[in-house]
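Researcher: I'm preparing a figure for a lab meeting and need a structural model of a single chain. I don't have an experimental structure, so a prediction will have to do for now. The sequence is pasted below. Please return the structure as tokens so I can convert it later.
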Amino acid sequence: MSARMNENNIVECLFEDLPSDSDSFTSYDDSDADETYLPNKDVEVVEDNNLSDDLMDQNDDELVEILNLDEGNILLLPSPIKTRNLQRQSHLKNNDTNSHIRRPLFPPINQESTETIAVENNTVVNGPPENTLINSNENNNFEFTTPTWSKNNVFSQNPLPEFTCFDGPSSIIDIEAEHTPYSIFQLLFSNDIVELIVYQTNLYAYQLKMKTGKNYIPTDTNEIMTFLGMNILMGIKRNPSYRDYWSTALDLHDDYLSSLMTVNRFGWLLSSLHLNDNSVMAKRGETGYDKLYKVQPFLIKIRENFQKYYHPHKIIAVDESMIKFKGRSTLKQYMPNKPIKRGYKVWSLADKHGYLWNFDLYTGKRGDSVETNLGGRVVKDLTNPLQHKNYNVYIDNFFTSVPLLAYLKSKGIFCCGTVKSTRKYLPKLESDKNMTMGDIDWNMSDQYDISIVKWKDKRGVTLLSNFHNPTDVVEVKRKSKDGTTSMIPCPSVLKDYNNNKNCVDKFDQYKKMYHIDRKSRKWWHRIFFFFFDAAIVNSHIIYKKITGEKITLKNFRREVSKSLVSKTFVQKRRQKSSRSPSPLLIKRASVSPSLRKDQSAHQPDRTTRRRCAHCSTKEKEVRTDWKCTICYVPLCISKSRNCFNIYHSC
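Model: Understood. Here is the structure written out token by token.
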């Protein structure tokens, strides 16, 4: 806080009017606005250096001590409760003017200061992060007027404005440096997230001990990383239950996973895993109640990292994703037409490569009333950090409306989507019964450059766009009943929409491959593992962009898992009695860089004569009698050549 605060500043902060849902960061519903509660903007709450007589007449027990953090003084000021009541009475007298004008709770933020993002204990420091979901005050400046539709209106955007951003990994990432799958994953699932998990897990275990008297062994960073690495591998090597990996049955037992941690310790971590302090959680009906309190610190940080290290492609899409969950939760949604019918709904913004750049978890209605313009509010919130950069957004008919496209156009965002013919402000188009396959009907608004196009295929489909010319037509192939193919006209807006609408679907497809699919009675576990998998998918996309390496998602997940468990793996290997592994294991050994370069535990040992893993080639075969006791890799050790040292340092 750069400005020094005096007594008046503190009073104004205390008596600041609380925002209704229409002023909050995640809602656009003004149905609960209390006109008798919000003071008039023009009314002075506190006059210069003097409190009103009504306030100063309070008893001493109604005064409260307020600490001035800048000056270190303690000021004796009136109770905010009584002052608010006086403000309401003052407002009722002045209710005839500016009754709906609200001042923002936070002051305007300098654009330059938003480049530095700092989030501590769920509190935004030095202004909200640049890419945080916020409802900017600019949203309230846009006034929508009903357009007039006619075929005589001319499409004026030819050519379209150029895209003003570069896409791909952020400049924060050093492209010239040597990157591994794990180093990229660490950017998104950063160390402070791991430390948060360690601290909150130990705190929960301590609180449980104070309540039940049950002792516990505190966890640490290395153990949590091992736990996460094991979960990644369990997504690739699936078993019905996590306990099957430690089963004594030979057909279920897994030597690798069971050697990293005992089954009881894994179960304890799974049951004790926590992301926030339960002891200070507000209950339902109390001030500050948050349905996502248990995962909110994690969601804030992971969203910040997703946006910090990657710039989305020009083509983006907004759609809903589902987190599978069948347990008890007020957040659970039922969508019978979706592949995942029951679970949590996540509003997602992803780009053409399937990178999840922004998201918002749907928590149901706010207050007692249902939000009327939910789809429009979601698109506005998710695209808010991308304004005035000429992005192309593709949405479906749940979100699309004329006011939304007009608003996005005013913010420098181009949008296209299918639309329901029953939406407001739409012109009347030709009915399906009067159209044959290939027929096109369209209309153009007199403002906002919004076009509506209807095309008849087997059924009619209607699209709304603020950057497509409705007269542009391409040809597509269609088969008739007798098996012959023919070319029929198709609006270019429809072809463009079909090519680019699946950005979120592509992310869902990547995430579902080898994802962590574990049932849990704790409602938030599914949410945590969903975004943990999302961090792997996003880091895979960044890694391929930076290195150009064509690595499959399965192998990428394996490399990340190896690096997460590498320290524990080395410790367990050292504790085991030395025994020579099978020749097959030596021949096919694959060692991650993090394990290979942990030099303190690596020692040479005699083995059968095999080809050196470092210097032997097809043209020149070199054999050695030595291997590494940790890596199980054959390496040369001689007077003229020391591949053992080179292998563990390069």
